[in-house]
Amino acid sequence: MNLREQAARGVFWSAAAKWGYQLATLAVFAVLSRLLTPEVFGIVALASVFTALTRLVAEQGLADALVQRPDLDADHLDTAFWLSLSVGVLLAVSLGASSWLIAALVNEPEVAPVLASLCATLVFAGLGSVQQAILTRELRFASLAVTTLVAVVVGGVVGIAAAGAGFGVWSLVAQLLTFEIVRTIALWIACKWRPRFRFSRRHVGDLLSFGANVVGYRLLRFANTRIDKLIVGSVLGATSLGIYVIAYRLLELLIDITTSIIGSVAFPILSRIQEDLPRVQNAYYKAIRLTGVAAFPLFAGLIAVAPEATRLIFGSQWDDSVPVMRVLAVAGLLQSILFVNNIVMKSLGKPSWRLIIMGITAVLLVGAFAIVARRGVVAVAVAFVVVTSVMAPVWLFWVHRLISLSVARYLRQIGPALFASGVMTAVVFAAKLAVADVPLLWRVVLLVTLGVVTYFGSLWFGGGRSVAREAFQLAQLALPRRAHHK
After folding, report:
1. CA angle 264, 266, 268 (to 5 degrees)
2. pTM, 2 dp
């Protein structure tokens, strides 16, 4: 397969993994949201802030360094494995020992035992990180899809069974631990590489010179995406955090099934062609164009049908999350295309640029959240949107410096999808008045169907025909070969 076909196959299998993962986790999440209280979700969300933060440090950006390097030998892999595992174990023990102090700092005593239990995820992450990097580097997204889906299904079954048996917060802990254990086992089965007992200090330097910037960027990105939860939980309590988490969950889902799919494939592809600027430019514009077509209607649609979607998926007890969900959907529109910019910087060996931009963003977010937190969860969501909007031109400026970005050409990539999404949203809002008395399930089906038809019709007649054809061609490349090709 040529690189274009490999990219198309990568998108297909990455999409299969992301969509399968998110649909499965959403189904599990929906069931658990009806069995557990907002306080339970808030407690686990607070504990997860600290395990996720520690995990970023434990990973040290080594997986990305393995994918990005033009040349790679066996000593790089062995060194990365033993370094990841040893640091993961050390940090797991340290975090577990400090769990009671952390619980006191966030004013939530029940966080301590949950956090101590979730520390084990750091060890399993270290055991599977190199295997995941190898599969990504080789564009084996089908294998990654299978490992992810198996893990989420098994973890979901365990979590639901535990919740049904009345284990409360421990059902979520069991779900997370089971997911990590099963996923690690599946990665070892999918990847035949096995570590040798070798460790090279020289190779540590090779990997960490790139990985250090990746870690710094991810720590700052973590602050941007998790500090709101930490502040909400500490200031407003676990129940308010649970409401915020439900709203944020749909934002993460939509980003994961659109932007993350393209980004996961774009990184290894752009890394391969990083010396060919015209090809990089074309790939960048194509990624922006396809991301807009896939992501814009989803976030715009969420703004329109948030009340109905929340009641259908999670139940009426979560109605308070609707205003937050709508505000965060606006942030999702911006983040969906900004995400491609950081992929370009990482692929072209400029992780330090991302680090600077994310540092500025983190400072602005922390300040904004601290100012508005006591005004409630909606105010926190609004602050997130404002800061994201302020930083969007900064991202574009630095991408322009890196690949000579044309603003006019950039706007042409997202224009048709933006127009079609706006028309769709207006039509769906108007239609809600006509179907207000229809039962909830059928109301959602009607509104979603109308939205899909309106979006694609507006896209086709609004200057997006070439994008539709391009997406169709990529789909043809991505699907299994026909019999006469065999």
Report:
1. 85
2. 0.67
